[in-house]
Design a protein that fits this description.
By secondary structure, this protein is α/β, with parallel strands linked by helices. It is built from eleven helices and ten strands. The chain is globular. It binds 1,3-dihydroxyacetonephosphate (13P). 1,3-dihydroxyacetonephosphate binds next to strand 3, strand 10 and helix 10.
Length: 277
């Protein structure tokens, strides 16, 4: 497993790496099978809720097992760690990347905590992502009704003062699906790109029209996070099995269809993000 900095190196050439949020073994297998089929590096992202539910060891070892059958680079990333405890735990447990999300805090506190994460991560040779600005919607079961777009000047200050390697920005996307078409603030994204040198991340990638995703990547987004669309693909796989045969009880048939759903969706996103090797 490689670091976020390593996996994002080269994205300035006009592509982005997919951050795919996973929950269990079938998710991990689906993402890795897609990465292998499409010959693309991928970021396997996990939030706190599945970590608590499955246990950190089960999930890390699932990814390590998947890595053995994989010829493309993988990065194991903690997504939206909103407290230092979980971030430090994942660093110590062997994640190759973490995101600290202090976007719910006043900027001074966000900076102070992010600095602590950068220091701790450096001891393990990893390069964290952090967020400035707020996205609306539901992520990891937590709802945020507030939205605050990232200010380009503040973004520069945040990166300079914390020393983070990767910055998540708020430019009009949200977590979850949208009512109508999301309007991305491309001018703001351009301004941030000009002020800040580190790779930029677009969270809330589900339901954003392909043309907007492409434009964001052309402006300088290096990593696109996708969660909700994978949940839907997983569930549709299972529903499809029972629509065809309501009496199906074999776990491999049911979960196999869910895994196939994840694989197909991830291949579609890799094509959109142009990250094929
Ligand atoms: P979506 O669920 O909207 O795809 O967002 C995922 C995300 O940003 C995870 O960090």
């Amino acid at each position: 497993m490689i670091t976020l900095k390593e996996i994002l190196a080269g994205t300035e050439k006009g592509y982005a790496i997919g951050n795919f949020n996973v929950h269990n073994m079938e998710y991990v297998q689906g993402v890795v099978e897609a990465a292998e089929a499409a010959q693309s590096p991928v970021i396997i992202a996990i939030t706190e809720r599945p970590l608590k539910y499955y246990g950190i060891d089960y999930l890390i070892n699932t990814v390590k097992a998947a890595e053995k059958n994989c010829s493309v680079p993988l990065c194991l990333h903690l997504d939206h760690g909103d407290n230092l405890d979980i971030v430090f735990k994942c660093i110590e447990a062997g994640f190759s990347s973490v995101m600290y999300d202090g976007s719910h805090l006043p900027i001074e506190e966000n900076i102070a905590n992010t600095k602590k994460v950068v220091e701790k991560a450096a001891e393990y040779g990893i390069y964290p992502e952090a967020e400035l600005g707020k996205l609306q919607g539901i992520e990891d079961g937590k709802e945020s009704t507030e939205s605050a777009l990232t200010d380009p000047e503040e973004a520069k200050r945040f990166v300079d003062e914390t020393g983070i390697a990767v910055l998540a920005v708020a430019v009009g996307t949200a977590h979850g699906f949208y009512d109508g078409e999301p309007k991305l603030d491309f001018e703001r994204l351009k301004a941030i790109r000009e002020k800040v040198e580190v790779p930029l991340v677009l969270h809330g990638g589900s339901g954003v029209p392909a043309k907007s995703v492409k434009k964001a990547i052309d402006i300088g987004i290096s990593k696109v996070n996708v969660g909700t669309e994978l949940k839907v693909a997983f569930n549709q796989g299972i529903k499809g099995v029972w629509e065809e045969n309501p009496d199906e009880i074999e776990c491999t048939a049911i979960m196999g269809a869910a895994r196939e759903g994840i694989k197909n969706k991830v291949i579609e996103k890799i094509d959109l993000f142009r990250s094929n090797l």
